[in-house]
Amino acid sequence: MSSAPGTPPDPSSFDDGYYRRFYGDDGAHDDERIAHLATAVHEMAEWWGVAVRSVLDIGAGMGMWRDWYRHAHPDVTVRSVDVSEYACRTWDHEQHDIADWCPDDSYDLVICHSVLQYVDDEGVVRAIDHLGEATSYVMYLELPTVTDLRD
User: Fold this and answer.
1) Is 105 helix (H, G, I), strand (E, B) or coil?
2) Strands of 77-82's sheet, edge to edge?
3) pLDDT per residue over 93-147, tens digit each?
4) Residue 17 CB-density burial (10 A; 0-12 exposed, 13-18 middle, 19+ buried)
5) Count of alpha carbons within 13 Å of 81, Cβ hemisphere only?
6) CA dihedral 83, 88, 150, 30 (to 10 degrees)
């Protein structure tokens, strides 16, 4: 992931090596951590009175959110997309770049977990517009800080 500042990486760089580096033994996320986070987000939506029946997971990667929903809430419809051909082929997502693609439908919950730091400045503006268009009720948006990216 060695792009110049403000330049997004080539989607092909999200390959097996990327996933081993960031999701291996000491990875940023694992199934247990995502289960805690997904439970919290889902329960917060319910606390707000939102019955989550549809989810759009942008930058789905290894599909941990989708898999959690399939296990914990099998009645919820989850659409998972990723920009990486490798991730889509390996974990069965649709291939889309949120900076250039706006879903035709809206979803009760839109998840965009650690994605937008890989999008250039102009693309981020479009991506946020697209995320907003896709969100009926709740959006979970997480962006790493400069410290997160450095460390």
Assistant:
1) coil
2) 94-95, 77-82, 54-58, 107-113, 135-142
3) 999 999 999 999 999 999 998 888 878 889 999 999 999 999 999 999 998 777 7
4) exposed
5) 20
6) 140
- Of 77 and 20, the structure prediction assigns the larger pLDDT to 77
Euclidean distance between CA atoms 60 and 64, whole angstroms: 7
Amino acid at the residue 30? D
pLDDT at position 16: 59
> What's the Rg (C-alpha) of the chain?
15
Which residues, including other chains, have CB under 8 Å from residue 9's CB and lie 6 or more apart? 1, 3, 118
Find, among 89, 94, 125, 111, the residue nearest to 37 by Cα: 111
Task: Say if strands 135-142 and 107-113 run parallel, antiparallel, or are unpaired.
Answer: parallel
Among 16-20, 77-81, 98-102, which stretch is predicted with the lowest mean pLDDT?
16-20
Token code pair at residue 14: 């999200």
Give which of 71, 127, 135, 132 is closest to 109, Cα–Cα: 135
